[in-house]
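I hope you will forgive my troubling you with a question about protein structure. The matter concerns a single protein, recorded as an amino acid sequence and a row of backbone structure tokens. Please examine both parts with care and let me know of anything in them that strikes you as inconsistent. Here, with my thanks, is the record as I have it:
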Amino acid sequence: MKKDEEQINPKIEEVDILNALRNKQFILYYQPILNVSEKKLHGLEALIRWEHPVYGLLSPEHFIPIAEKSSLINQIGIWVLKEACEQYKVWQTVGFHSFRMAINISARHLLHDTFTEQLEKILQHSKVNPNCLEIEITETYGLNDMQRTLEVMQRLKKIGVRISLDDFGTGYNCLKYLIKLPLNTIKN
């Protein structure tokens, strides 16, 4: 019997996450983003969950902090990008167009040397318009290396990808740094 996500505190280790990647235990859920005034779908946010064989459905707070301490966060991030873009392509083929797909990316993965190249390859392969993709980073973790963050964000903007800063106001960054960043959206 699987335990409810809110009632468990699983002991997760790096090897468990690696096995989850190998055994395809991660899944994406898509949360709608609605334009309330127009009463229509504005976009979707791809949210990763882990279908753990013992603990049941686990939310990211159970495994992302552990993955961020290793290179596994990069593998998870690439998997999420590929899956979300492939799903977006499927929705386009059945007639759903003109919506944005938001994807949370770890700052560690965002600042990895190969992130933008990997993202470009995924977009080319899936044929998803970069303007339909919005990369979300969290303020607390995303702005530690301001110069590198700015370089990567400028490259993403050049590709055509939108950038969102999530959890604004929960970190320690001041507005003078935020003004420098090429952000499309700031969320709290």
